[in-house]
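Predict the 3D structure for this chain.
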Amino acid sequence: MKFAIILAAAVLAHAQEPATKSPPTSMAENSQPAVDARLHADVVKLIELTGVRAAIQSSFAQNIGESKARVMQACGGCAPEFAEEWAKRMLARAKVDDYVDVYVRVYEKYFNDDEIRQLIVSQNEARNSQPQTISDALKQKITAQFPSLQSEIMGGTTQVGAKLGGEIGAEIQQEHPEYFKQPANLPK
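Done. Predicted structure below.
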C-alpha cells in the first residue's frame, strides 16, 4: 500500500536541521517480541499524526472495487452476483484497525521509542509549518530500512485483506452455490 510511502515521505520531506542524536540502536533491540507499552503508545500516536488511519479508511471503497474485478477474473465461471456480494461484505467487515495494527507492529519492530518520539516531534513541527528536525542518524536509518519497512507493511496489509476476502468468498460459496458455474467437463 501507499501508506508506508506516505508515512516515510512525510517524515523525511521537510527535514531540515538535525536534532540531538538518538543513542544508536541495533536491530536486535528493535525486534524483541515483547513491546514496551510506552513504545506502543508512541507508535500509535505517530500513526495517527501522519494520517494513516484516515488514508486507509478513505481508500477502502476504491481498493475493494479494484479487488472485485480481480476476484471475477480469478473466479472464471462465477456469476457477477458473487463479486457484488463479495464487495458488499468486504466493505461491511473490513476494519481499519486491522490494517493500522500492521503499521504499528512494523514500526515497533524497526524503531525504538526515542526514534518514534523524534518522528512525533517532526510531525508536530510540520503541522505547525516549522522546519522539521530529525537527527542524521535517524534519517539514514529510515532511508536504509525503508524498503524492508514498506515490504512488511504491504505484505501485512495484503495478508489481512486476503484472509478476510477468502473467508467471505467461502461463506458466499456455501450460501449461494448457484453463483459458481461448474465447467462442462466436470461431473455435477
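The chain has a mean pLDDT of 82.
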